[in-house]
Amino acid sequence: MNRRVFLRRAAWMGGALLAGTPLAAAARVADGRKVRWKMVLAWTRDMELFKRGAIRFARRVSLLSESRLAIDVSVAPEGMTPSDVLGMLERDEVHCSHCFARDLAPRSPALEWFSSVPFGLTPAGYDAWLYGMGGAALWKQACEPLGFYPRSMGDTGPVRFGWSNRNLNGLDDFKGLRVPAQGVVSDVLARAGALPVLPEDGTPTVSALASGRLDAASWHGLFHERELGFHKAARMSWGPAWQAPAGRMMLCLNRKAFEALPASLRIIINASAVEEDHRLSADFTARNARAMAALVTGDSSILRGIAPEALTAFRRWSHEAAGDRAASSTLARTVRDSYLKALGELNAGKE
User: Fold this and answer.
1) Under a CB-based contact definition with an 8 Å cutoff, are residues 243 and 118 in contact?
2) Which residues form the signal peptide (predicted)?
């Protein structure tokens, strides 16, 4: 596919998300002028695939724009949270970022549904909801008050519940379990009697698991977990991925900076985000599958399953907890209703 055809096919991506963008603002950067952006990633240095995806996106933008738009990519300084990165966007200190929407849910509760919720949409389901079932317009609505436009850009795929040296068969096994969790997942585990703690970076998490300060933990899928040595810190990987059937990532575009670009550069950004959305998701799928194969080749007993009766309880509590969080705002309720409608339609006819 040549450059012109690729851009034409991808131009639709800006439709729902760019509705109402002032043409005067878009004209502030002349078509022939070269622009340089700063992109700060809300990832840590041990999140290898995440960083690769962002760098590929930046290179693609430069290539398609024939260097009219260059994006300098850097990892957020150590100790900086996703909320801190959002603050940089709001203060116009950076032009774009890459993160999980759920990390910004304290600022906009509706964002909880744009990363993953327990027993919810799979990566393919997110594609359908965002690209074809109205999810993108709601995502834009949730992010506009925060000063940025969202784009879907990658998915970790399902993440097994976690590594542990404890048996996690039935509900009683979760009582007193010290495990990193946030959002709806944290609410569910608390109802099970677990002791959720705030998630940390990958290296401190695996160290805490090895020392016994944590009883269970996961880290964005088997590839990154194996790279960091989770399988050495704990004997068993417990599934299924009830708490994270997907892990959708978000490209955040500073609204002022984006609107100041000419239409041609905005289309290139949209096109590059669409391409990287699928490329990065495929990378995670492939790497996680290879990590799974390597782990079970060494010891097939490493993979364990949580008992069905416990999963039934988790499903019920997830529905209740998500409902409680959706009640916090009108937009959150609207987003949850749209999400559940899409989930129901996509699951229709499945056993």
Assistant:
1) yes
2) 1-26
How many domains does the chain fold into?
Answer: 2
Task: Please report the pLDDT score of residue 222 as a whole number.
Answer: 97
pLDDT at site 28 = 52
Instruction: Let me know whether 75 and 180 are in one domain.
Output: no
In this structure, the answer to whether residues 182 and 263 fall within a common structural domain is no
List the chain residues with pLDDT less than 70.
1-32, 349, 351
pLDDT of residue 17: 40
Task: Write the pLDDT tens digit of every residue in 13-54.
Answer: 444 343 333 333 333 555 568 999 999 999 988 899 999 999
In a domain, 72, yes or no: yes
Specify the CATH number for the domain of residue 77.
Answer: 3.40.190.170
The token duo for 174 is 């979760």
pTM, entire model: 0.89
Can you give the pLDDT at residue 13?
A: 40
Q: What is the pLDDT of residues 115-135, one digit of tens each?
A: 999 999 999 999 999 999 999
Q: Is there a domain that residue 225 lies in?
A: yes
Q: Residue 310 maps to which CATH number?
A: 3.40.190.10
